[in-house]
Write a structure and sequence with these properties.
The chain is α+β, with helices and mostly antiparallel strands. It is about 30% helix and about 15% strand. Helix 6 packs parallel to helix 8.
Length: about 260
């Protein structure tokens, strides 16, 4: 892998660095409790939505079934390229921990104004990839011009998944969902509320959970099911962090639903 280009001296955000330092199957991607604890310790703040955390300028979406994390940054193309190269440089500077591969071009060492950055959205199809600690780390970059698709700002997607997770994810398991509902912690139930396929009785129970954080997450999921991409998200009944007003851009969850490449 080539060294990062000298005209792109971008510091790696502290929250991303701290996340990557604990990116393995036992510390980060073990279960809901380990996910929440590791993300909070790394500087990510939990939000209303199940599995969603944030920093000043980044979104993080996580799931506990199977455990995985996706980090999103969006904005100016040059800034996104710089951030992506900073992530790539950090990961590739530790060959004793992660091995690198890609089926596409290795853009980690391109100059910021290389014309290849704007040649289609192949970077979302062929990510840079690192393996180690029983996890797979994938790094995607998209330009702000995507012919024939929803026009959105340039964005970076950093995905961390367990190496043993099936390609299509884990199947729906209603018995497991009811066990988590019955015996799981608040964090377990908060994550459960974000799973895409749940039996109606579990959804109803989560919406009436004794903990306001779980209720708010379940209500948020209902809001996403019943609406498209506009309108204000729910509050948390006065407890915990809220997010006022309609979103200024697609949330991480919405981007995942709108684009199969980011799922």
């Amino acid at each position: 892998m080539t060294a990062v280009s000298t005209d792109a001296p971008a510091p790696l955000p502290d929250a991303v660095r701290a996340l990557l330092q604990v990116a393995d199957a036992d510390t980060l991607l073990r279960d809901a409790e380990s996910l929440a604890a590791a993300l909070t310790d790394a500087g990510w703040t939990p939000e209303v939505e199940s599995g969603r955390f944030g920093t000043d300028d980044g979104d993080l979406l996580s799931s506990a079934w199977a455990p995985n994390v996706s980090v999103f940054f969006e904005g100016d193309e040059t800034e996104i390229r710089m951030r992506a190269q900073a992530v790539a440089s950090f990961l590739s500077s530790r060959p004793e921990r992660w091995s690198f591969r890609t089926d596409g071009d290795d853009w980690s060492g391109w100059t910021l104004h290389d014309t290849r950055w704007t040649m289609g959205d192949w970077m979302a199809t062929y990510p840079l990839e690192w393996r180690g600690g029983d996890v797979v780390i994938s790094l995607y970059v998209r330009p702000d011009h995507q012919p024939g698709k929803v026009l959105a700002p340039a964005n970076l997607h950093l995905a961390i998944e367990r190496e043993d997770t099936p390609e299509d994810g884990l199947p729906r398991d209603d018995d497991r969902a009811r066990r988590v509902l019955r015996a799981g912690s608040v964090i377990d139930r908060w994550y459960l509320a974000g799973e895409q396929e749940l039996p109606d009785d579990v959804i109803t129970a989560l919406e009436n959970d004794p903990d306001s954080r779980v209720r708010a997450a379940a209500e948020s999921e209902r809001w996403y099911r019943e609406r498209t991409v506009t309108g204000p998200p729910p509050s948390t009944d006065g407890e915990g962090p809220g997010r006022p007003g309609p979103p200024a851009h697609f949330s991480a969850r919405q981007r995942r639903r709108l684009s199969g490449c980011l799922a």
